[in-house]
Amino acid sequence: MTTPSTPPPFASRNPADPSDVLAEFAPPGPAAMTAAVERARAARPGWLHGGAAARSAALAAAAGAIEAAAGELAALAVREVGKPITEARAEVARTAAIWRFYAQAPYAPTGAVHETAAGPGLLLTRRRPHGVAGLITPWNFPFAIPSWKAAPALAAGNTVVLKPAPEATACARRLSEIVRRALPEGVFTDVPGGPVEGGALLAAADVVSFTGSTAVGNAVVGAATARGIPVQAEMGGLNAAIVLPDADVERAAAHIAAAVAGYAGQKCTATSRVIAVGAALAPLREALAEAVRALRVGDPADPATVCGPLVSARARDRCAAARDGVPVLAAGPAPDGPGWYAAPTLVEKVPPGHWLLREEAFGPIAVLLPAEDLAGAVRISNSVPYGLVTSVHTADLGAALHGLDGLDTGMVRVNAPSTGVDFHLPFGGAKASGHGPREQGFAATEFFTSSRTYTLTP
């Protein structure tokens, strides 16, 4: 029987059919998380001292196992988090590529040799792993995000404990089962749960990487900082697409509509604000409205679907509330049925104080905004607390290279959607979008290690 001090069991449901329950579990509690960290700590010496070849082979084997299970994993993402099947397949392929990319990292140089200032001897710098990496991940990329955290941590010689979002419990469990077969016992562990388990991981890990909401991310950063351990937090965005008058308007509209409503807008890189510069407003307004209405909304298992369900009834209701009292320029269809669907929506003439201009809706809705010139568009883009990614659509290379230097976002994508990640390059944002070093690429292996300086004298 559940007591007031015991969190209730959690059920992970299919967003397209909430009667379909994929996983049910009772939160295991902080002791289970602490025990998992201790097992990971005990496994670390063998994993680190086994050498670069052993770590490289294990990560490559994990990549191969993920590829072998690609169809199963994609179908699971469709069912548990409502990801359209085309995007789910792409995520699984990227997940395997991430593990394969970091399989080469154990062979990379870990430091440098320097001359002493005076006298014989050597000065060395060397990067060493922190210990146990605690990973707290969201539900929207249930395979890729845990992987782009875990793979570089493991490549550097850390061991890993993963605390996934409850909504992605089944995906995390299956990914863990596949990866663990390629690794020694205790090197990679997943522990389901909620805030209690996450707090226990924060209290025990040696380094923490988090992706999720701003409120939770700030709490994670505070807890890790209080302990004096390295922490990185990716906390979303309120991303803008800037369209200049010389842009290919039809192409820009197609990119932006997909970035607004692909996967029902449930990406930290989704476009939330569309800024039309000068004469671009009228043609973009028409083209974008048409593109939004044409988006395919429905069953995420259908390869033609662009916008599937939202992850929960609460998320659906938040998107519906965002349209109240705001002029709707265009809206796509919202299918009838049991799923948590919301129509892709483009709104305009939003009052200055409206929350859509300050907060992330995390749904298929965007605001159309006018700007007199490029400088004005940059000011609008920068006017929010977030700074993850801005997409810019123009035929003017000079504007792309020089006129956009004032954007305070971590990433700028020219003539491309705001969505999309190159996993071999650094990923992250400015201001409230991120804290700490960047993720992905070689920046990730640096984050999961610390630099040490050695002085050797005869």
Describe the structure in your own words.
This protein is of the alpha/beta class and 458 residues long. It has two domains: 248 residues, Aldehyde Dehydrogenase, Chain A, domain 1; 183 residues, Aldehyde Dehydrogenase, Chain A, domain 2. Helix content is 38%, strand content 22%. It contains 14 helices and 20 strands. The strands form five sheets. A seven-stranded mixed sheet has the order 12-13-14-11-10-16-17. Strands 7-6-5-8-9-19 form a six-stranded mixed sheet, sandwiched between helices. A hairpin with a 2-residue loop joins strand 1 and strand 2. Helix 3 runs antiparallel to helix 6.
Q: How would you summarize this macromolecular structure in one to three sentences?
A:
The protein has about 450 residues and is an alpha/beta fold. Helix content is about 40%, strand content about 20%. It has two domains: about 10-235 and about 435-455, Aldehyde Dehydrogenase, Chain A, domain 1 (3-Layer(aba) Sandwich), CATH 3.40.605; about 240-420, Aldehyde Dehydrogenase, Chain A, domain 2 (3-Layer(aba) Sandwich), CATH 3.40.309.10.
